């Protein structure tokens, strides 16, 4: 059974950085895409970034240039490095692999 556990969320000031982690277990993940989504208060869940198993990456317009999505296939871990964070990035961030979702990690950007 696939399990995804996110961590690394917290409170950070505008302009700061955070690195989220998604520890995946239950199968090998080197042959699947892995992605990050987020849900801001009062809004629907939206795409943030995806790491393709062939090495490609894709970012939302809001993430482009400030976020990166490295992955470590040896440890089945997906990361989301977020820099120059803005208050609009406040949300619960979810890891998604195939049809599976993690429980989310909360990110709050506030001074």
Largest sheet, in brief, is: 7 strands, mixed
Q: What proportion of the residues form beta strands (DSSP E)?
A: over 45%
- What is the β-strand count? 12
Q: Could you tell me the mean pLDDT? A: 96
- Uncertain stretches of 5 or more adjacent residues: none
Note the overall shape: globular
Output the radius of gyration.
Answer: 13 Å
Q: What are the secondary-structure elements, in order, as H or E?
A: EEEEEEEEEEEE
- What separation lies between the terminal Cα atoms? 40 Å
Structure notes:
The structure is a single chain. The chain has 111 residues and is mainly beta. It has strands at 3-7, 10-12, 18-25, 34-39, 45-51, 57-59, 67-68, 71-72, 77-82, 91-97, 100-101, 105-109. The chain is built from no helices and twelve strands. The strands form two sheets. Strands 2, 4, 5, 6, 10, 11 and 12 form a seven-stranded mixed β-sheet that branches. A hairpin with a 2-residue loop joins strand 10 (91-97) and strand 11. The protein is globular, with a radius of gyration of 13 Å. The termini are far apart. 29% of the residues are buried.
Offer a few descriptive terms.
seven-stranded mixed sheet, 111 residues, mainly beta, globular, 50% strand, five-stranded antiparallel sheet
Q: Which SSEs are present, and which pair or pack?
A:
Blueprint: E1 3-7, E2 10-12, E3 18-25, E4 34-39, E5 45-51, E6 57-59, E7 67-68, E8 71-72, E9 77-82, E10 91-97, E11 100-101, E12 105-109
Parallel strand pairs: 2-12
Antiparallel strand pairs: 1-3, 3-9, 4-5, 4-10, 5-6, 7-9, 8-9, 10-11, 10-12
How would you summarize what this structure contains?
By secondary structure, the chain is mainly beta. The chain has no helices and twelve strands.
């Amino acid at each position: 059974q696939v399990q995804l556990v996110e961590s690394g969320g917290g409170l950070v000031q505008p302009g700061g950085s955070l690195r989220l982690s998604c520890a995946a277990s239950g199968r090998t993940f080197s042959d699947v895409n892995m992605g990050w989504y987020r849900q801001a208060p009062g809004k629907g869940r939206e795409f943030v970034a995806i790491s393709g198993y062939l090495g490609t990456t894709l970012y939302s317009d809001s993430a482009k240039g400030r976020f990166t999505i490295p992955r470590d296939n040896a440890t089945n871990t997906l990361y989301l490095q977020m820099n120059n964070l803005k208050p609009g990035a406040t949300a619960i961030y979810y890891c998604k692999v195939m049809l599976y979702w993690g429980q989310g990690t909360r990110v709050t950007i506030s001074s």
